[in-house]
Amino acid sequence: MLKYFSVQYYAGAYVRISKVNYGNGYHSVLYVGMTDTNIITYECNWSGQYCEVSYQSRTFDQFAKIAPYVIYVVKHNYTGSCLSNNQKYHKQYCSTSECNGWRYEEHYSSYPGSNATCAACGYTGSISQREPLGYN
Fold first, then answer.
1. Chain Cα centroid distance, residue 132
2. Could you report the per-residue pLDDT of 107-136, keeping only the tens digit for each?
3. How many helices (H) and strands (E) does the chain have?
4. Residue 84 CB-density burial (10 A; 0-12 exposed, 13-18 middle, 19+ buried)
């Protein structure tokens, strides 16, 4: 399971975990990231206290003991549409069907300058960022 975490998940992924394989005892976490020794998550109500949000950093062994099964994952796929938000940023929507997430991203252009057009959202104005190579 832990190798799957490091390869398949991205920060912000919604992960449904369980102590048993497809039974009771489900729990959900938001995946934050990994270090060489720990898995880092945001969690709600883990201690049984309602409306509690906690930031957890557990060793791989600790995490495997409390939740050895991954039931499903919804991860962000930021290839959705973009809308200009202001002179510096556009809002890019997640294209995963189960998600309504979004992120702010700085405008970029193949030809940055004082009258450039953003390759993602079409904003025209001063843009200093060059379009990333291989950007999708």
1. 19
2. 999 899 999 999 989 999 999 988 765 444
3. 2, 10
4. middle
Q: pLDDT digits over 5-42, tens only?
A: 554 566 777 888 887 766 667 788 888 888 888 888 88
Q: Residue 102: which residues within 8 A CB-CB, separation 6 or more?
A: 80, 91, 92, 93, 94
Q: What is the DSSP string of 59-71?
A: EHHHHHHH--EEE
What are the phi and psi torsion angles at 109 (to 5°)?
-145, 150
Q: Which phi and psi angles does 55 have, rounded to 5°?
A: -105, 115
Residue located via tokens 């450039």: 116
CB 82 within 8 Å of CB 91 = yes
- The CB-side HSE value for 122 (13 A sphere, CA atoms) comes to 3
Residue type, 47: S
E strands, the chain, are 14-18, 26-34, 38-44, 53-59, 69-74, 82-84, 89-93, 102-106, 113-117, 124-127
39 CB contacts (<8 Å, ≥6 apart)? 2, 5, 31, 57, 58, 60, 63
**Half-sphere exposure for 47 (CA within 13 Å, toward CB):** 8
